[in-house]
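Suppose a colleague, Dr. K., hands you the sequence of a protein chain of 265 amino acids and asks what its three-dimensional shape might be. Before reaching for any lab equipment, you can write down a predicted structure in token form. Begin with the sequence itself:
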Amino acid sequence: PQALPLSGRGKGHGSGDEEGGSLRLLRGQETRGYREYISGDSLDLVDWKLSAKYGEMYVREAEGLSGGRPFIVVDLPDRHDAPERDAFDRYALAVNGAVQGSFTKFGSCPLMILSGGDIVTYIPPGAGEKELFQTLAGIRPVERSVHLYRYLDPAMARARIRALKREGADPGGFGESLSRTLSAFGGDGVPVIFRQQVARAMRSSGAASVLLYTTALGDLSHIVQVVQEAQRQGMHVTVRASGPSGAGAVGRMLAAHEAATVEEV
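The predicted structure, expressed as tokens, is then:
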């Protein structure tokens, strides 16, 4: 799609709500430019004034989201936490639109479908359109076989330990006790197999960014793992969560991860 660059950087047209410092909903991010609307884009991103001027729909593009093809990750909910059918159909439609738009623009679309701490399917960048959409046609809530249940990543544990030490926890107080607990249970562990599998898929995708779709229902520990691994590999992450409550939940959970942008679908 044709991009319309800005003469200078400015804020988007939304309210600019912020959570956790650098983590912002797209409405409040700096706008890099504009591009033609692609099926699956959120209508919240449409610049209606510009669209009326040119007679075509244009959406605002946030700083850092332009560039090469994204690595699209789709999180399937546990069937016990599944949304209503209409809500899931809207979610699936948004996913299909994003994949179609990426394939149309770049000629390929690396895709990973997961549920909890389990990778259901990985489609490499060289796959054809038929394989992609045959896979997407089968997405539905699943019976999750792997759960991470608030898994404490070793890197996060070490960061929290350092923060407690900087704060000068009182000897024998809660801070010192928490620091000892984190050191014993989270400070020196090895990454879970799921994280290692995600790392390999990201490297082989050849993408510079990650576009992650989630219904944001049930335990979301695996979402943190995906975001952390993307950050480790220098990839910007955009998370598109279902509904305002889903976007809010993901935003709060990822508030400490500055390389993540949260949008509502």
